[in-house]
Each structure stands twice: as C-alpha cells, then as structure tokens.
Write a structure and sequence with these properties.
The protein is α/β, with parallel strands linked by helices. It is 53% helix and 15% strand. The protein has one domain. Helix 1 packs across helix 3 and helix 1 packs across helix 6.
Length: 117
C-alpha cells in the first residue's frame, strides 16, 4: 500500500489500498490487512479508486468462495475506505482489465498465503 502524509500537518496518514490488497481482503488470507480495514484507526485514512475496485472484482474466479460473511466484510470496506474516481485523480481514462493483469493481481494477492504455510 502507498502511504502519504497529509499536507495540512495533520497527524493522519493516508494509505492507498491497491487492487491486489482489495482482492486479498475479499478472498481472505491477511489478518493484518483485515484488521486495518475493518477496525478503522483514527490516525490512518484509507482510500482507493473505482478502478482498483474494478480490477479486484474482475479478478475473482468462479471457484473463489464468496460467502455472506465476506459480503458483510466488503460492506465494512466501503464504510472505512474512501473511493475516488480514477479518471478524476489520474486525468486519464481507465485502462482495460486484461487476463494478464488478472493473473498478476491473483499472484500478488495469493502469494502471501503460499508463503505463510
């Protein structure tokens, strides 16, 4: 995740949540990430873009188990993570999500699980 300090000298740290972290959050496997998102801390402001969400959702496979509990966890994500427009922030259109990018994101998101065992 990218980290930025707000320019107004506020103690709040802004952290960008990239697509691979969102995917990891949805399919599970990182307790630290889950805690950071679900248990919002007062000194960290999490944010992402609509494009990062698109990439994460578009990288889900039919065999990924998405239970009602995970959907409720995702609702918590939207409660605690600000979502900004990629096109507005980057001043360019959203790229197309390719099969190669999906595989890259899945590799990044699942790598933590395979290293954990």
């Amino acid at each position: 995740m990218k980290t930025e300090i707000q320019k107004n000298n506020s103690p709040t740290t802004r952290k960008f949540v990239p697509a691979e972290s969102i995917l990891k959050f949805i399919i599970g496997g990182d307790e630290k990430l889950d805690t950071m998102i679900v248990c919002k801390t007062t000194n960290v402001a999490l944010y992402t873009t609509d494009f990062a969400l698109h990439e994460a959702f578009g990288s889900l496979k039919d065999y990924d188990e998405i239970s009602a509990a995970k959907i409720r966890k995702l609702a918590k994500f939207f409660e605690n993570v600000a979502v900004h427009s990629f096109e507005f922030m980057e001043k360019k259109p959203k790229p197309v999500l390719t099969h190669e990018r999906v595989e890259e994101l899945r590799l990044l998101a699942l790598r933590f699980d395979s290293n954990k065992s």
